């Protein structure tokens, strides 16, 4: 059965539309489309007309065309609709009073990918905090968690490692929709409550992966062109904290990893093939490859590496697979493997890998070549699952 997003519901429900009587703003990006590929900004202009007065964009920009972290986007005027577009990944990640001036209802329509380090959920929660003492209603138009809403993985973020890729104590693969993140924020993390409404999806089930929704996949960030990439993302994003390429500058970013010093076939045959069997990790295969990044790490240098192929999404555990591959490559490459140095996402002191992991303990697990079974001790998720049960919408 086809899923209808919160945007679809708003578009087709005239009674809901009538409840919004004031001026409207919209936080959105490239993936903010309805089930017929029409962008939210077009639909908002049709529904609210002159009351639609401002647009906001997250990291990567309103048009989702800006690469990488700490590359900020400018404010602008929409060339067709002639309304301001304010960047919330600019000199500020929190909307200013001036940006919010005149808005009565601020809608949020962002496609998240179900992973703690994806920054859109923090753009949302910072916006909620800012609006808590203003007479502004925040309405989240809910969208699917593309890697399902059942499987939860990884360690809970430790407070001393908070950053813009991890502001709240949630696991790496959190199992929430963006609407549920908003509700958890209001329930657990907000110091003051915001006037919040979530417009739920229709027909979405927690066990669904994105392809089950029959919705169009529009890249939510420049390097997630395929829904499949969202499934490998909790594994491969960890390589942002290393000197290995995570495939940026290729046609398969965040599905492949590599380094100029890797000879992929010998490493696979002599090492990886058996170590994967010993790990008892399931649901994936790695394939030896060579690739040539055209930008970012190792630009124009041939890299050897591996592509992660998911063979069973239900048994594939990306966080665990990512930790495993980093451990293996750390010891196989020796001095050629390096942890990336700061800064990373505006943190100028801590190692990026620790920020991504939300702890330094996983780095020590890698460096000490500890057993895969020890990862179980990092996944203390009982309390989080209870918290999630309290705010689940589906």
From TrEMBL:
Residues 24-226 form the Peptidoglycan beta-N-acetylmuramidase NamZ N-terminal domain. GO terms for molecular function: peptidoglycan beta-N-acetylmuramidase activity. InterPro entries: NamZ, NamZ_C, NamZ_N. Pfam families: NamZ_C, NamZ_N. It comes from the Bacteria. Residues 232-394 form the Peptidoglycan beta-N-acetylmuramidase NamZ C-terminal domain. PANTHER family: HYPOTHETICAL 460 KDA PROTEIN IN FEUA-SIGW INTERGENIC REGION [PRECURSOR], PEPTIDOGLYCAN BETA-N-ACETYLMURAMIDASE NAMZ. This is DUF1343 domain-containing protein. It comes from Gramella jeungdoensis.
């Amino acid at each position: 059965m086809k899923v209808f997003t919160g945007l679809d519901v708003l578009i087709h429900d005239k009674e809901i539309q009538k409840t919004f009587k004031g001026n409207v703003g919209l936080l959105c990006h490239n993936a903010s489309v309805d089930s017929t590929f029409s962008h939210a900004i077009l639909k908002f202009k049709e529904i609210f007309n002159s009351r639609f007065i401002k647009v906001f964009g997250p990291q990567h920009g309103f048009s989702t065309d800006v690469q990488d972290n700490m590359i900020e986007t400018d404010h602008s005027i929409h060339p067709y609709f002639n309304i301001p577009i304010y960047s919330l990944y600019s000199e500020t990640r929190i909307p200013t009073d001036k940006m919010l001036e005149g808005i009565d209802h601020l809608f949020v329509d962002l496609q998240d990918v179900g992973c703690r380090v994806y920054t859109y959920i923090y753009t949302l929660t910072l916006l909620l905090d800012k609006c808590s003492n203003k007479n502004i209603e925040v309405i989240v138009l809910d969208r699917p968690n593309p890697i399902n809403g059942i499987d939860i993985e990884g360690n809970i973020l430790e407070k001393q490692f908070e950053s813009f890729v991890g502001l709240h104590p949630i696991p790496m693969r959190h199992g929430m929709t963006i609407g549920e993140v908003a509700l958890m924020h209001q329930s657990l993390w907000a110091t003051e409550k915001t006037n919040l409404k979530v417009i739920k999806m229709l027909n979405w089930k927690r066990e669904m992966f994105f392809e089950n929704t029959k919705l169009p996949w529009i890249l939510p960030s420049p390097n997630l062109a395929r829904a499949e990439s969202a499934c490998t993302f909790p594994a491969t994003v960890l390589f942002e904290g290393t000197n290995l390429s995570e495939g940026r500058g290729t046609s398969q970013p965040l599905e492949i990893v590599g380094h100029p010093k890797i000879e992929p076939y010998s490493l696979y045959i002599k090492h990886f093939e058996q170590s994967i069997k010993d790990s008892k990790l399931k649901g994936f295969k790695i394939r030896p490859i060579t690739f040539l990044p055209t930008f970012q790490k190792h630009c124009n240098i041939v890299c050897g590496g591996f592509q992660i192929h998911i063979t069973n999404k239900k048994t594939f555990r990306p966080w665990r697979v990512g930790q495993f591959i980093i451990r293996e490559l750390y010891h196989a490459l020796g001095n050629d493997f390096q942890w990336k140095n700061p800064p990373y996402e505006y943190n100028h002191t801590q190692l990026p890998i620790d920020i991504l992991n939300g702890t330094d303990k996983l780095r020590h697990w890698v460096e000490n070549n500890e057993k895969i079974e020890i990862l179980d001790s990092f996944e203390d998720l009982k309390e989080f699952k209870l918290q999630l049960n309290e705010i689940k919408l589906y």
